[in-house]
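#random but structural
TW: two for the price of one
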Amino acid sequence: MIFLLFAWLIVCPSPQTDIYHVIHVRGIILNQTKNDTLSVGDKLNPSDKLLFRTPKAMATVLSPAGGRFTLGLAAARQSSNGEEFMNLLKDVLMGETAVAKLSTRGLVTDKIVDLKGVFSSDSMVFLGGRSKLILDKSAHPMSHHQYFVYRYTYNEDKIAQKRIPHRADTLIFDKNILYTHNNHAIAPAGINEVEILKVNVKDQSSRLMGSFKPIFISDEELKTELEVIRNVMRSQQLTEEEIIEQMYYHILAVYGQTNENMLRLWLSEHLKM
């Protein structure tokens, strides 16, 4: 059952007393009050003066009292001749629109049966350098004769077909393995589309499980952002399940579609949750 996560999203802030924790930054934003470039983990006051130095600069902040907000040029004061203006943080806060992607069963580590459903979006966000998915063995047995292939085109006309590593019932999307050819690294950002194929050598058959644009978040970037979310949420005495829901929402809102199973495995390994 699909539901909208309204808690912590669009609630009026308390500008005189609230603190805003930075959980994501894109582009360059200068905190003129502290004479420093904005970065994840910073704490902002409503009276802090911000300067957006790049055209698409934006940030996401988390407030214990008010929830999630976006800081962006859409709300910033600008001029037609390109002159830069200082903007008070409280004047550039934009409430986020809820994302209808969470489900009541989504954050349980169920073994995946519907793999086509996992790869049904236009894009897929992989978490870290070694993203993992646990598959249902009866639906997706894996062996030397049955496995999955990661296929894409690079350098305009060259095709790479990489067998996706697995351990028992777990697929391992190792970026270094998938994007290395003849000992040369291939940049994932330059790949427009990836196809996931299910191969059966004995039957000499292959089936398309899905195609999408791959997006990779580094372990370091993801850990830095999710640690801030975890610390703020724990200070509000939220449960671990509620915190993980907020982390999942954060990835959906900032980066795009990912998989709950994949997130759980990453959190267990990197944040011990």
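TW: number two ↓
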Amino acid sequence: MSWIIMLTAFALMWVLRKRHKTPWQVKAGLALIAGCSLANTGIGVWLAHRAADIAGLVPAPAGAVVSAVALVVTVIVIYDIAVDRKADKAAKIGLVVLPVLFLAGIGPFATAGAGLTDAIAQVSANSFGKLIGG
């Protein structure tokens, strides 16, 4: 079901990309739902492992590096949305990538993020699934 929700959310993001009257909350919410659904698929797990492999090139624990990157991405997303009250490209990319980084990270920040990712993916699967007949 995560595949269908992910593809639906990405398709809606693509349709709404040029519409200026769409509220930023809708675009940000779709990006977050797409990212959480992506993290619940096999591709998301594979991407998390690749992120950990890339972080392994830094002479520090790979999980800690990924957690630090996730924290930086979180700050960038919050700052980008807070400055102009719009979900710009950086915020949308960050909201899609952040759940995958939570899977690869370690520590309480990553644990809480992974729990939030699972919760959002389950809620979106239950709500969108009923809408699209799944």
